[in-house]
Amino acid sequence: MRDVYIVSAVRSPVGRRNGYLREWKAPELLGAVLDEVVARIDLDPNLIEDVVNGTVYQVGEQGFTLARSGVFASKFPDHVSGTSVNRQCGSSLTAIQLAHGMVASNTMDIVIASGCELMSKYPIGSDMGGTLPDGRPQGDCYGQFYIDRVKGKIYNQAQAAQAIAENWGVTKEMCDEFAVASHQNAHKATESGYFKNEIMPVKGLDKEGNEIVMEQDETIRPDTSLEKLAGLNPVLGTEWITAGISSPVTDGASAVVLMSGEKVKELNLTPLARIVANAVVGSDPVLMLTGPLVATPKVLDKAGLKMDDIDIFEVNEAFAPIPLAWVKELDAPMDKLNVNGGAMALGHPVGNSGCRLTVTAINELKRRGAKRALVTLCTGGAMAPATIFESV
Ligand SMILES: CC(C)(COP(=O)(O)OP(=O)(O)OC[C@H]1O[C@@H](n2cnc3c(N)ncnc32)[C@H](O)[C@@H]1OP(=O)(O)O)[C@@H](O)C(=O)NCCC(=O)NCCS
């Protein structure tokens, strides 16, 4: 296995539902991010061998093979190929893991991994229960086999978060405090310019439809408070999970360039990070979102590292109880968790999030002169990828 480096990393700002990014077409947003990630290191796009892109709702603009239509919308030459992967909310971390394998195995030298999801246009469930071109129903991806597997206990994602909170002793008060901190940390990071390096400014539309240049994430609520959160109603058939402790519906894209050490040298580039280890798990299908609790020890074990060896953790805030249960399960330090805010504040464009968290983690390692970051996400279908990155 060869060492694999990330030499460039960029993301669009995250747009709220029907917000600044509402007029973007998925291939064009992905294409813009692809162009930017190579432009930042002056890399000749002719050298790219493949684009592995994570998207969950692979229909409409996000259908066909979004990685390939993203290439068509970019300045890349025709010979750059593309493929789309779907591991639910872990899709673009899986894209990074697959791209890592392609380079580490000496099959390819330069591969881009990316993520793109426009949830404003393609909300959760967009690839289920629709109609085929000839009018027949698409069919259901769940069946008796699934009902049997979960012993008839079918939770939606918010209900799973509620059940996890109960199992791990996570309270509503803990979740509200964590959500306020997420917004405050994201606000501080934005105001201090911590995200400037990683965000590529993109054109957007304000509420009135005027064209603007969008340089910041649109979902951060610096004025949120425990009082405001206490006033929100429960969602999706739960007892106390509210919009305030959930990741909001959002749009965004991101990309990283992975390269072999030989190519890095040949092209005289300065790597940002090395991939230390990858893991993926399937977890309890009833609780659905506990994957990070299992994937974290697994990836640490593969790397021969301990929790103490990690400087920052990005554990996706799909819902507040997930990272909080992760903290309890692994006795993890809160001050290393989602240090610049998480998905409750920064949004969770599902297929984009693994790559977005990676871009943010690598950037933060550099900014604070720290060594290692661990990124992991819970996913629909009860899975979780986890990857450790080391600053170089
Ligand atoms: C939870 C969910 C159903 C809530 O949907 P919603 O009610 O439309 O939520 P919104 O984010 O639009 O918020 C509704 C209102 O709640 C209030 N609110 C939300 N978050 C708030 C916060 N942190 N502070 C104060 N008020 C807040 C606001 O009044 C907001 O309205 P506004 O955006 O006009 O200000 C939706 O965000 C969701 O499905 N999230 C999870 C997505 C998901 O499952 N992803 C995959 C993970 S497995």
Order of helices and strands: EEHEHEHEHHHEEHEHEHEHHHEE
Overall mean pLDDT: 98
Q: Got a strand count?
A: 12
Poorly predicted parts: none
Quickly list its features.
single chain; 392 residues; alpha+beta; 10-stranded mixed β-sheet; two-stranded antiparallel ribbon; 12 helices; 12 strands; 19% strand; globular; binds coenzyme A
Task: Describe the structure in your own words.
The protein has 392 residues and is α+β, with helices and mostly antiparallel strands. Helices cover 33% and strands 19% of the residues. The strands form two sheets. Strands 1, 2, 3, 4, 5, 8, 9, 10, 11 and 12 form a ten-stranded mixed beta sheet that branches. It has a two-stranded antiparallel sheet with strand order 6-7. Helix 1 packs across helix 2 (66-73), helix 3 packs across helix 12 (353-368) and helix 5 (157-168) packs parallel to helix 10. It starts with a strand and ends with a strand. The mean pLDDT is 98. It binds coenzyme A. Coenzyme A binds at residues 89, 124, 157, 179, 221, 224, 228-229, 232, 235-236, 243-244, 246-249, 318, 348, 350, 380.
How is this structure best summarized?
With 392 residues, the protein is α+β, with helices and mostly antiparallel strands.
Task: Itemize the secondary structure elements and their pairings.
Elements: E1 4-11, E2 15-16, H1 26-39, E3 50-54, H2 66-73, E4 81-85, H3 91-104, E5 110-118, H4 144-149, H5 157-168, H6 172-191, E6 202-205, E7 211-214, H7 226-230, E8 250-260, H8 261-266, E9 273-282, H9 291-303, E10 312-315, H10 321-330, H11 343-346, H12 353-368, E11 372-376, E12 383-391
Helix pairs in contact: 1-2, 3-12, 5-10
